[in-house]
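Researcher: Please generate the 3D structure of the following complex. Treat every line as part of one assembly.
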Amino acid sequence: MNDLALIEETARRTIVDALTPELVEAATRGVWPAAVWKRLEGQGMIQPAALTGDPGEAFAIEAALLRAAASTAAPIPLAEMAIGGSLLAAQGFEPPAGVLTLVAFAPGEELTRHGERVSGILERVPWARDASGVVAIAGGDLVLLDPKSGEIVAGSNLAGEPRDTVHFKAVQPLAVGGPVAREQIFARGAAARAVQLAAAATRVLEITVEYATQRQQFGRPIGNFQAIQHQLAAAAGEVASARVAAQQAYQALATDEGALFASAIAKTRAGDAAGAVARVGHQVHGAIGYTMEYQLQRFTRRIQAWRGEFGTSGFWTRRVGEMVLAATNRSAWSIVTSGF
Amino acid sequence: MKTPQFDVSSSYPELEPVRTAIREFLAADPAMKTPHADSWSHFDAAFSRRLGAAGFIGMTWPKRYGGGERSSLERYVVVEELCAAGAPSAAHWIADRQTGPQILRFGTEEQRERLLPAIARGECYCAIGMSEPESGSDLASVRTRATRDGDGWVINGRKIWTSYAHQSHYLLALCRTGTGPEATRQQGLSQMLIPLDTPGISLRPIVNMAGKHDFNEVLFEDVHVSADSILGQEGAGWSQVISELAFERSGPERFLSSFVLLEAFVASARRTPSPEQTTLIGSLIARLVPLRGMSMAVAAQLGRGESPNFEAALVKETGSMFEQDIGERLLGEIAEQADPGSTRHLNRLFAETVLSAPSYSLRGGTREILRGIIAREMGLR
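Model: Done. Output below.
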């Protein structure tokens, strides 16, 4: 087992040990699973950059941690923490103690600034109610705000994960940084969600294959039926391409070459693939997979929620098309082989 | 469940020289005035001879057999460039991809020295002798028989769907050689390397729905061949043919057969792209890039001597769907008329794609066979 696989497996076990059925149930009602977070923090597994001095390697570790969290349906903002932390670090700021979250940096998602004071509405901020800091953009510059300095209106995504709206009225930020490249951050979030989607889709396939080998009908495991086998084989193809697309995006981030293009592809591919896998997972499981009690929904609800975050497949598909069409001096093939 | 492993590498700087070389070769080659969709089904012996003379056939083989001792990823680059450019590669394709490697692995020294240099020069072409009229996906049911006859063999039976048997020199045929009652159908099979000009062989052309004579039915009536026609071990035909099929599963031709149409469509859409065209191109490119990553990862594994059967089957399963979808999506979105006789590249390539697309998920193992393999790898059967 190499170092990355070891980190992923260690994180996965840490989460599985700490994430009791009671915490899982409470989290669907928006209760923060502090025990899980503390255990990961205690092992240094919240800030990937802290585990290595090599920025390229930090991305690989980040992907490993995201896979661990997504494959255990851990209700924690690991992606937001990692991205937010690295954005702050890039501008020379320390992340605040406690939970850090960030907005998506979607087009038009911006606060206004008058002098030092910041106003505006941040929509659907992950775990804003539990965070001590939210990274956002105000007047083109990076800002760190204390969510509690604004008015928090609770909301949630399809999986019951907090997605709160925060109203700021002329508040003093915790920190004000310099200009940021909005689309690159949006794409960085898309790449993170792609890793999470691929990992959740992998888990759905694993759970479903196991179920198909155990569930007996007509005197044999349902996985013996070709109709089931072929659905699962097609799902395996979707999982493979989602995983590879996510991997390609993180490699592009690590080498800082063509990250926007690779991330756009990854979110498109992983979103579409995970949606298809979720559908097969539910179909093969039958009614048991449609219950709150059974574990399948923990993954499929997150998949459906994540598809809409940091840009939909449709948004990034158009972006990929625009990039290919705009590069008028290059063949599509050279873009496929060399990226941007 | 076993998780498929695709060890994706972001860049391969060591492959750039060979990519530049093959791109320069293709840019200068007269055959490239007319690129083709499904170009590895377009037979052009003169093109293959030029390609062989430039060192792009048998690239990974030892130099003493006319090879280039290059890495399997260097060969991969050449193959993907041929597919992406629409180069007419059918003449040498089968010999380069599978027959040559089978001869290298299982053949005698005499067979290697006699055949491999000619294949590498782009002068000796081979056809696949697997399917029979009653044996399609169920390959182990083949009935064509090779019987010992003095020093040699005598062959009787029929092969079908044999691409370019009428223009090839050898057929590598899976034949029944067992004499006793075998315990399983997979036993008692051998691979025979049969010169196609041997008396007793007759060919019946089969024209495909694109109007092309590519397939043949090959009849063997008391065909006498010499003792050195057997490839590898007598009775080991099944395991050898499985290893031959592995060369067929995961290469660039499993997802790039219709790429040249997408390229032409991108070029035509660049002037004034509509939102629908932008979305269509984005969605196809977003499927292609990871697919190519999967395929290259498998090529690297094969190059290390591993047997990534699960991963290779996944490439073909997703790849053939993708290359079919290019024509399918264009039919659904654009008003361009597909016309096999058009002088406009886009219209002609559109027609070539639509008329060849049904074969993509049939050749080299049908979609259903591939899904069965994937299901088995996942522990479902």
